[in-house]
Amino acid sequence: MTRRDDKALSHAPASTEVHPLRRFTDARVALGRAGTSLPTRAHLDFLHDHARARDAVWAAPDLDGLHRRLESAGLPVVRLRSCAPDRAVYLRRPDLGRRLADEDAERLRGLATPDGLGGERLRVGIVVADGLSAMAIDVNAAPVTIGLARGLCGQGVDLAPVALVEQGRVAIGDAIGEALGLALVIVLIGERPGLSAADSLGCYVTWAPRPGTPDSARSCISNIRLGGLVPEQAVACIADLARDIWRARVSGVALAAAIAQRLE
């Protein structure tokens, strides 16, 4: 084979047996090759997506703008912080992101109701935490929160003020749930970015949230974004999940077991 033939072969497109997969996924498949390396375009795309993922993790979401959008939709909002003082500490110390700042925990207790689990109207709270993707919060949090709040209020629940949390992890919903006397907490949080999606929002629903609740007791819906589960569909899925949890009065793996037993 001549050098010219070898060069042409090295830049040939991926085989037709693999290439059609790219119509169905954003994953890095059928990228082609240049010798033993990626083509220039694929390499530049990788660097671009890696930079977007880093920016999503380190950037601060526009919580002020989200606050205004929620209030304009008629939703009361409370602003909170975790025990992580800044982003660098937050990324190094996940445990601090799970704990509510002491002054905020005290402030929330004044909004609590005594019978969150036992009253006729369930006390439910929505928590929006920045998590590991500011982009996910900026793009997806407002439509999901507003749609979900309207749906929940239409089902007769007692909806607590929406909590916007800076430097928060999933488990901070447990501390908020305890302080507010919630029967159920729904945490919307920026998911860890991948190299094909930096704007995914995750949803974690927990029955009887209290500090120390294991992750196995949470029910999760992930990949909420325009390229995955779009916000309108996500609202419907979360509402259906919440109804199942209300009926069973458990969440996480216990909910899956309860549903399986009901279907037998």
Describe how the helices and strands are arranged.
Elements: H1 3-10, H2 40-58, H3 63-72, E1 77-81, H4 87-92, H5 94-97, H6 102-109, E2 123-129, H7 134-154, E3 158-159, E4 162-166, H8 172-180, E5 184-190, E6 201-207, E7 218-224, H9 231-248, H10 253-263
Parallel strand pairs: 1-4, 2-3, 2-4, 2-5
Antiparallel strand pairs: 5-6, 6-7
Entry keywords:
disordered N terminus; Rossmann fold; seven-stranded mixed sheet; alpha/beta; 43% helix; 264 residues
**What would you give as the CATH superfamily?**
Ethanolamine ammonia-lyase light chain (EutC)
- Sketch the major β-sheet: 7 strands, mixed
What letter string, H or E per element, gives the SSE order?
A: HHHEHHHEHEEHEEEHH
Tally of discrete structural domains? 1
Find the count of extended strands (DSSP E, 2+ residues). 7
GO molecular function: ethanolamine ammonia-lyase activity
Cofactor: adenosylcob(III)alamin
Binding site for adenosylcob(III)alamin: 170, 191, 220
Keywords: Bacterial microcompartment, Cobalamin, Cobalt, Lyase
Q: What features would you describe in this structure?
A:
Strands 1, 2, 3, 4, 5, 6 and 7 form a seven-stranded mixed β-sheet that branches. Strand 2 (123-129), helix 7 and strand 3 form a beta-alpha-beta unit. Residues 1-18 have low confidence and may be disordered. The protein has helices at residues 3-10, 40-58, 63-72, 87-92, 94-97, 102-109, 134-154, 172-180, 231-248, 253-263, and strands at residues 77-81, 123-129, 158-159, 162-166, 184-190, 201-207, 218-224. The chain has one domain: 3-Layer(aba) Sandwich (Rossmann fold), CATH 3.40.50. By secondary structure, it is an alpha/beta fold. The termini are far apart. Helix 6 runs parallel beside helix 8 and helix 7 crosses helix 9. It is globular, with a radius of gyration of 22 Å. It has ten helices and seven strands. It catalyses: ethanolamine = acetaldehyde + NH4(+). Belongs to the EutC family. The basic unit is a heterodimer which dimerizes to form tetramers. The heterotetramers trimerize; 6 large subunits form a core ring with 6 small subunits projecting outwards. Catalyzes the deamination of various vicinal amino-alcohols to oxo compounds. Allows this organism to utilize ethanolamine as the sole source of nitrogen and carbon in the presence of external vitamin B12. This is Ethanolamine ammonia-lyase small subunit.
